[in-house]
Design goal:
This protein has 176 residues and is α+β, with helices and mostly antiparallel strands. The chain is built from 3 helices and 10 strands.
Length: 176
């Protein structure tokens, strides 16, 4: 079930589409990756409307703080999400419109519709259409944060990865 909220948040003027929700188990997630500021996936501004943008961890925290009623998911919340599905294919958008082949087992049965915006470091993008990375709010040590990852060539879903906050990943918010 999706509900279009159509609201604006502080200095960030979001398109109403950006705040469409999807309920998965007991969790309510935004259906789309955030697309305010950050850098465009594949360093191509035309990709933003589909894939959202890529952010450092500091930027992800700022966007979440400015989005009333939502927050950056914790590692535990990602584990709850992944624990309620069979495999990573349940979270990935089905088909090959946005993922490289083979997009293993992708059927999006959860409704999460993960898209492979890839990642960036120092504003240089990589892994576009291959991998989806999502920041969590859970810090491991120093400037290292947990993230969730999905790949085009397998049906695994990782929530135990740790990365420097300088990397740029997608942001998907969860309702408070």
């Amino acid at each position: 079930m999706s509900v279009n909220l159509g609201i604006s948040i502080g200095v960030y003027d979001l398109d109403p589409q950006d705040l469409t929700e999807v309920v998965i188990g007991a969790q309510t997630w935004l259906l789309y990756n955030c697309n305010v500021g950050g850098i465009a996936p594949n360093e191509d501004e035309n990709t933003r409307s589909v894939y959202g943008a890529l952010y450092t961890h500091e930027e992800a925290v700022a966007i979440a703080a400015a989005t009333s009623g939502y927050h950056l998911p914790s590692k535990t919340e990602f584990e709850t999400l992944t624990g309620g599905v069979t495999d990573g294919g349940d979270l990935k958008e089905a088909g090959l419109d946005h993922w490289l082949t083979p997009n293993t087992d992708a059927d999006n049965s959860s409704g999460f519709t993960a898209l492979p915006a890839g990642q960036a470091y120092d504003n240089i993008a990589s892994s576009f259409q291959e991998r989806a990375y999502f920041w969590s709010s859970t810090q491991q040590t120093g400037d290292s944060w947990y993230f969730m990852r999905l790949d085009y060539d397998d049906n695994l879903m990782g929530t135990g990865g740790v990365a420097s906050g300088d990397l740029q990943y997608s942001v998907r918010l969860i309702k408070d």
